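Justification of resources, computational component.

The compute hours requested in this renewal are based largely on the per-chain cost of generating structure records like the one below. Each record pairs the submitted sequence with a full structure-token output. That output is archived, and it is also reused by downstream analysis tasks.
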Amino acid sequence: MQTEDAIVNRVASSGLVTVELEQLYHPGPRVEFDLAPNLYQGLVLREKEFRDFLKQHNWEQYRGQNVAVFCSEDAIVPVWAYMLLAIYLEPVANLVVFGRLEALEDALFRDALARLDPADYQGAKVVIKGCSHRPVPPSAFVEVARKLRPVAASLMYGEPCSTVPLYKKPVAKPSPST
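The structure output for this chain reads:
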């Protein structure tokens, strides 16, 4: 009579801690605010007209949204114009950044990762999950690796059943007795 070997889930018993960056995805809407329609003859921003626009614009439409501010035209746009936009958007928007949607996504993940406590991963074997259903920018993977390397025993990328090793903390060698 043959004894059946029990099926052992080695992944579950490995002590691996998985970091799923998609869980840090901010669910709020993302929009772009293009300054180009405010340019005089598509070339320059005029202060008086721009300030009039700012006073009349419906800022409530950005309530709770994540806003990327940019200018799609190669034009003369003074830095103060972007600063004024941020001042008008700040009371209603969740987040305001300079740049396109990619810069906005980077900033949203950077904010979320700033709240990640590295102490929670002290001495852990960490797998940074690669596949997700939501877009995760490469900058988020770089930041989590940078943040966890000093505390984790090891860092891996992928899925717990198939990982790419990234880092393993060197084992401290005992000093020779003298």
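Residues 16-25+108-168 form one domain. The two ends are 59 Å apart (CA to CA).
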